[in-house]
Structure formats: structure tokens, C-alpha cells
Description:
Shape: elongated
Strand order of the largest sheet: 8-10-7-6-13-14-15
CATH architecture of the largest domain: 3-Layer(aba) Sandwich
Radius of gyration: 21 Å
Structural class: alpha/beta
Order of helices and strands: EHEHEHEHEHHEHEHEEEEEHEHEHEH
Amino acid sequence: MYTVLVIDDSVSMRKVISDIINALDEFEVxxxxxxxxxxxxxxxxxxxxxxxxxxNMPKMSGVTFLRNLMRLHPMPAVVISGESxxxxxxxxxxxxxxxxxxALGETMQSFHTKVQETLMNLTFLLKQYTLKKPKPIKPVAQxxxxxxxxxxxxxxxxxxxxxxxxxxxxxxGAKIIxxxxxxxxxxxLLQVFKKLPDGLPPIVMTQHIPYGFSSSFAQRLNDHSSVNxxxxxxxxxxxxxxxxxxxxxxxxxxxxxxxxxxxxxLDAQRVSRHKPSVDIMFRSLNNSAGSSAMAVxxxxxxxxxxxxxxxxxxxxxxxxAQNEESCVVFGMPAKAIQAGAxxxxxxxxxxxxxxxxxxxxxxx
Length: 364
């Protein structure tokens, strides 16, 4: 069970957020704080696994507190605030998730769903954090009681077969490029997109990113690239010169319709422990494009994508993995390499060049 400290100056909002989080089996709110100074003392005392932070708070703004927290005591932090316009800035300040507070006319159920989906998408990150963080020594009276709900049962890993059938394309069509990434992928993708020219085949991306951040991240990529980057919407015809990012809470599936590739969104269970899943996107690329696709596996924890990229490799697609030296976490690329699914292992600084070479027929 992951412990949470809720920080908000509103008594009612602290109660609402706490009730939403406590409804999740894997999370428990151990305390709340009304401002940054109250939060600082409770973090020292309780060592929670996650904090939620409001932006508009008395005594010290949530932004200043977040920056200080990341500098002095780095830990997972989700911003829950009415200042939705700050999206990508909050991400730059170190937050791992963002949920806007309910807008005028928005139902509480919608807010409830956003908070819970954001937290559930963070469980893999939280697992890694809790394994590494030091265990505080507290007096018995102060210790947080953690209830083991697992009963010895490990979370079942969902295989792509349970969500999307494997139907490899026999004949390739127009070129298309798929990129999968997780931990470290935000800044790494930014470095790649800064170097990409206009006019490339369509690019589709699955980055493990919390709900509420994918749209602002797509905008950030768009602002720093010659490629037009958007968060993909349902039933979008993919065009050259454009890149499409999966939303933070749905699988991205590519289908072939005549001579066009169509992006569809699938609201299904987590696959390979993720939603969106790189495995689902890569499998759909193999089903729709096959040997006409390029697949790039970038930095990230775990093994999501290794099944799908092996299917692409076996079907004649061009596959690339980021090398260990340039990865923040050499997990997903390593698993793809171990699966025998990679043709070229490439430094982050060279990934853009390899994409351009593929587009121009120099790599296949």
C-alpha cells in the first residue's frame, strides 16, 4: 500500500481528495496538511510515498514548495490545482502528475476518475521509489500502519493478446514511425524532436505519462520542433509531418483504412502493467503497417513494448533501441534487445538521424 499526504489549504478539498484516494485499495492517505510548512513537518515525520500539492496556498505557494521539495527531498508529487494552464511548467518543476480541480459544470465523478486514474498510472513508479527510499525509524506510536492487501498475490501482467488480437500485416503500405518510452522519456523525446525536420512520415508515440500531462507535453514537443505534435484524438487520419501522442489514460491503436492510417483510442485494461501500453501500439503498427514501420524503443523501466517490437522485427520492420549510455533507465530497451528484436542500438543524440534515414530509404 502506498501512503499519501494531501496538501491543500481548503478543508473541504482535503476531505474530497482524501476520500477519493482512500477508495483505492493500493493507496492510503496517512495525513493532510494545510500549507507548505505544515506539510514539511509531516513529510519528515511520516515519510509518505506520495504527496498531492495545491498551487494556491497561504505562506508559500505550491510551486515554490514543489521546487524546494525536489531539491531537498525528491519524491513523487502530484499537483491537484485549479491552475490547469501551468501544466507543462509543473512537470518541469518535478511533478509526476497533474489533475485540474473540477471546472464549472464538471461533475465530481469526472474529477474522481481523473484522480484515481492518475494515481493508478503511477503505481510502477511508486513501486520503484518505495524500494529505494530509506525506511525511517519512528517511535512505535508514530508508525504508520500499512495493511497488506495482496495476500501473497502478485499483480497479474496482462498480455497484449487479451486486449488486441495479433494479425500481422502481410503487405506494407506507407511508412510510419512508432516511438515507445517511459522513465526519462519526456526530456529524451524533447531532444529527439528538436532535431527532426518537417515532412517526415507520421509518427505515433506512447510515453508512460500521468493523466492530465499528455496534452501539455504534446504542446511542449510541438513548440520545440518543426514537426506538428498533438495529443491524438479518436479516429484521426495520420498525416505526414505530424506526430501523435497517446493520451495518458488510453491505449493508442493504429488501423489501416484504404491507403490511410487511422489512430483509434482504446479504453481497456492495463497491458504489460501500463495504460497506454507500448506493446499495444507496436502490435497495432505490426497489424496495420508491418514491414513499412519503424519502431524506436527509448528509455524506460520495465519491459513494456518488448512483445510488440519483436513482432515488428519478425515481420521485417526496422527497429531501433536507445543505448544504455544515453538512457535514464535502461529497462525497456534492454528487454527489447534481449528479445532479439533490435536491428540498431543508437545513442539518444543520433535517434533523430536514424529516423530521417529511415524516412529517406537509407535504413530498413
